[in-house]
Amino acid sequence: MNTPVHDEAAEENTDEQAVRFPDGETLESEISLEHKLRDSLADAEDRLLRTQAELDNFRKRARREYDEAQRYREMDLLRDLLPVLDTLLRAIEAAETTDDVESLRSGFRLTAQQIEKVLEGHGCQPIVATGQPFDPAVHEAICQQSAPNVDPGTIVGVASRGYRLHERVVRPAQVIVAKE
Fold first, then answer.
1. Distances (CA, A) of 113 to 77, 107, 116
2. Contact call for residues 170 and 161 (beta carbons, < 8 A)
3. DSSP characters over 136-169
4. pLDDT tens-digit profile, the chain (180 residues)
5. DSSP per-residue codes, 27-48
6. What whole-number distance in Å separates Cα of residue 52 and Cα of residue 177?
7. Which residues contact 31 (CB under 8 A, 6 or more apart)?
8. Which 3 state secondary structure label does DSSP give 74?
């Protein structure tokens, strides 16, 4: 008698394909969707790692550039001061070969003006002091002196000029203040 051979593996395979989910999808389409989701997740993780590496590289590059800028921040000031130094050295050489005090004085005035111009070009301004009321934020009193016809607390002399860079005091002016 020829009995049909029952192939259970073939039946299970047919049953898998026949299994339908409530939304009408088959197991095969669910597996395909799962593979797509895994590929998409792997791609997103790869993009995340690359983006993190790019950000890390950017931070390192920005830090190097900042450190270099800090290291060489005085370069412009130095370039502007070197010609003034050259002038001063020439004045010293000239002083060694001449007895003309007035021309030396004039040369030193010119050099001082050059320095003031360089400082001004870099945002450094002298602090106005003489005749001003004493302000401890920008003035340093080195002594008090009697001064007729001057209100107490008024600056009557400057021992050393003060300077500010933009709004910040670089060095307070050393001043003589009128007392009562």
1. 16, 10, 5
2. no
3. TTTEEEEEEEE-TTS-TTBEEEEEE--EEETTEE
4. 555 555 554 445 544 445 565 666 677 888 888 899 999 999 999 999 999 999 999 999 999 999 999 888 888 888 888 998 898 888 888 888 888 888 888 888 888 999 999 999 989 999 999 999 999 999 999 999 999 899 999 999 999 999 999 999 999 999 999 997
5. HHHHHHHHHHHHHHHHHHHHHH
6. 61
7. none
8. coil
Tell me the one-letter amino acid at 108.
F
Distance from C-alpha of 153 to C-alpha of 177, rounded to nearest angstrom: 6
d(CA 96, CA 92): 7
d(CA 133, CA 154): 4
CA 9 to chain centre: 72
Q: Are 158 and 130 in contact (CB under 8 A)?
A: yes
Residue found under tokens 């009408």: 24
Tokens at residue 58, please?
Answer: 């950017």
